[in-house]
Write a structure and sequence with these properties.
36% of the residues lie in helices and 31% in strands. By secondary structure, it is an alpha+beta fold. A hairpin with a 6-residue loop joins strand 6 and strand 7. It holds the Pfam family DUF6882.
Length: 157
């Protein structure tokens, strides 16, 4: 069950995320670095060309997709993550509970449209909007992927 306003709200969230991510690409060349690393202790993504870190981003984990199960798993439902990396994901769940939005309150969201990447971006867009984040980043991998909410970003150095 979802409120009547939710589909339009989510569509707006997707448009907003696309604009935010376009800005991150323009300003920080996000998506063009040859390497990224995740430092779980500092909750940062480190983007580099080889050995030299160029951009750092403070992030929270939104969730992940699984090609095997054809689903999204919210970070708040993944016992492998420490609490401090899923604060925003818990905020999304709370928003979903307050507004009776199923896909924000269910641990797993099934990929009914057979496009797992789109599902990941759609749910990340909702998280970015709820948490007023700067954008989102998807780990560059085949099949399974992790989606991050970008809270702050800067050039290294």
């Amino acid at each position: 069950m979802n409120p009547d306003w939710y589909p339009a709200w989510r569509d707006e969230a997707i448009e907003q995320l696309n604009a935010k991510n376009d800005r991150l690409e323009k300003d920080f060349q996000l998506g063009h670095w040859s390497r990224y690393d995740y430092d779980i202790e500092t909750r940062r993504l480190l983007f580099s060309n080889g050995e030299e870190i160029k951009v750092t981003a403070e992030v929270q984990i939104a969730g992940s997709t699984s090609a095997k199960s054809q689903s999204w798993l919210w970070a708040w439902a993944n016992s492998n993550w420490p609490d401090d990396v899923m604060i925003d994901a818990k905020r999304v769940r709370s928003f979903g509970e307050t507004n009776s939005i199923d896909e924000l309150t269910q641990s797993y969201v099934t990929d009914v449209d057979d496009d797992l990447e789109v599902l990941g971006w759609e749910l990340s867009a909702a998280a970015v909007r709820i948490c007023d984040a700067l954008g989102a980043y998807r780990s560059p991998s085949e099949g399974d992927a992790r989606f991050y909410i970008i809270k702050a970003i800067s050039w290294a150095g």
